[in-house]
Amino acid sequence: MPPSTHTILQITDLHFLPQKGDQMYGIDTENYFHQVLNHALQSTKRIDLILVTGDLTQIPNASSYQRIFDELNQTDIPTICLPGNHDDWKLMKNTLNAENISCKKQINLGNWQIICLNSQKPGVAGGRLTESELQFLEKTLQNNKQKPTLVAVHHNCLPTGSTWLDTMTIENSEALLTILKNNPQIKLLIHGHTHQDQTFTIDHLKILSAPSTCFQFKPASHDFAIDDTEPGYRLIKLSGDHTFSSEVIRVAAH
Questions:
Q1: Segments making up each domain of the chain, as ranges
Q2: Residue 3 has what pLDDT?
């Protein structure tokens, strides 16, 4: 019998606005999220976990988080939400706080563990991992040495090739990368923030970003620019033999 496989749906950078129907860059971000989520649910045989990797809102408010909660709650799929630079972390934890939908920092999925980090640096667009966050990562890895691990975070730790965007990475990325490199049980790091699909390989580690569920950033741009690429999501399949596969799916939202 082949090892069991668990499927993760990564969605990111929803940028919900205060009122339903509000638009950003000419896009109804909430409607796009609805279409992307429905596509994933209808096209995927089984999803074991949804990871929402930050920037759930553009202008944080209780109504936006409640609408996100209500839609995710209808899926009956365990969901973990991470904060992005546009989020209100306290409000997130208060609203997205149920058995099935939460802001948990570590869970087990099959024989894998998922570690979720908070890279938010309040008041700025860029990110940083506090000393306590880095210590949490190291301690959790030490406590589960035999488990293959996926780490999720909002901000990127490597340059994207876009000058304006690369001013907003994790400012102490080297500290994170050192831990990642020194712990071969970590198989992949996933993140949001960049509104792009990119893949990097460092030693044993894959670093993957995912497209936003709404508007996309133009790759390799010097100044801020929106691309005409479709929104999408990432599917990650974690196998019982400690391997994984991943793909990005685009959605013709309108």
A1: 5-250
A2: 55
Which residue is associated with the tokens 């893949």?
Answer: 199
pTM score of the predicted model: 0.96
- Tokens 């970003």 -> residue: 209
Q: Which two tokens stand for residue 114?
A: 């998922």
- Does 24 score more than 50 pLDDT? yes
Distances (CA, A) of 166 to 161, 171, 207, 217: 7, 10, 16, 12
Q: Which fold has domain 5-250?
A: Purple Acid Phosphatase; chain A, domain 2 (3.60.21)
Q: For 191-224, what is each residue's pLDDT tens digit? A: 999 999 999 999 889 999 999 999 999 999 999 9
